[in-house]
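Today's session is about reading a structure prediction critically. Students often jump straight to the picture, but the first step is always the sequence itself: look for stretches that repeat, for charged clusters, for runs of hydrophobic residues. Only then move on to the predicted structure, which in these notes is written as discrete structure tokens rather than atom positions. Here is the chain we will use throughout the hour.
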Amino acid sequence: MEVILLEGIDNLGRLGDVVSVRSGYARNFLVPQKKASIATKANLADFEEKRAELEAAAAKVKSEAEARRDSIAAAPAVHIQANAGIEGKLFGSVSAIAIAKAFTTLGVPLETNEIRMPEGPLHYIGEHIIDIHLYADVDTTVTVIVEADAESAAQASFLKKDEEEENTDGESEYGRYDYDD
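Below is the predicted structure for this chain, in token form.
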């Protein structure tokens, strides 16, 4: 089925392109979402009349996305507290929802669908670089620092002290083993 794109769509085309897509994709998604219209002679003529208006609207949305990109890029790194074990592995994970909430509390509104995490949620403490996709050709990156919460950090330091005390005397609690009988 041939459709006229009313906005740029990743991996499909730009505003005004006439592309061939599966009929179900066109009927169930593109047309109801006002992202495309069916390519008929009447629709092509209507589109040509509205082309300048649609291009101006697309340019406005892109300039707003570029302004948001600049404000997001200027934002400081976000610190997220999570429950973690001794090895630095999280009990659970840090998802796009948690990252979006953290940025929103900083005053930088961010939607979960704008956050790109191709490797999935974060499972370890440390500094992570996250990709943000705001609009076609408008991308940026942010820094997210996942830290162990106070309870996890206290527990980890207690267990490390306990291990150091056990290993300082060179013997286990059962004494030294001699295998040379």
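Discussion point for the tutorial: The helical segments are 23-30, 41-74, 96-105, 150-168.
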